[in-house]
Amino acid sequence: MRSNPRAIVLGIFAASLMVQTSSASECPGLRPEAKIAWEAALKQSDAGHAQWATGDASVIKKMWANTDDVTIFGGLGAYERGWDQVGARLDWSATQFSAPVSGNTDWQKEIVSVHVCNDISIATQIEQFTARMEPAKDERRRFVRVTLVWRSGPDGWKIVHRHGDALQPRHVP
Questions:
Q1: Cβ atoms within 10 A of the Cβ of 140, count?
Q2: Alpha helix (H) residue ranges in the chain
Q3: What does pTM read for this prediction?
Q4: What pLDDT tens digit does each residue of the chain (173 aa) get?
Q5: Taking burial as the number of CB atoms within 10 A of a residue's CB, which of 63, 85, 93, 155 is the most buried?
Q6: Can you list the pairs that 84-88 forms with residues at least 24 positions away whose Cβ atoms lie under 8 Å?
Q7: How far is residue 132's CA from residue 171's CA, in Å, rounded to a whole number?
């Protein structure tokens, strides 16, 4: 599936503007260079997720650790374990989306919470984007609640787990 270059550029630009933090904590002794590297990886991940919403998983796949212990609980069902399965699932899930008629997914996020340490971090966030979804090419705004777990290693910060599913309305108990 071909991606619209204009949509990708607009998505990346929007992603770079939408890094918001409402609750963040840092481990004692967090090295400044570890925090800076994690923040840079998070921005790259945002750009990758924005591109994924247009049908292209190539950028976000680069943000994942290529190890046997990675996992994904995707919003399109099931789960996968190990890079071979996770990478294939990212490719497949991207094919379920395409850019909206306007070409701009307007991908955004709101960070709900972040906990950053030197070697591991966890972010919870609400992602939103406009895209068409297979099989009917239904175009609408989607809201996804996401948990990302990151690990720092020789190749920098890499995603080791993602859980994403549709944000549901709050029900009164």
A1: 9
A2: 5-17, 32-52, 58-62, 83-95
A3: 0.84
A4: 444 444 433 343 333 334 444 567 999 999 999 999 999 999 999 999 999 999 999 999 999 999 999 999 998 988 999 999 999 999 999 999 999 999 899 999 999 999 999 999 999 999 999 999 988 788 999 999 999 999 999 999 999 999 999 999 898 88
A5: 63
A6: 87/61
A7: 28
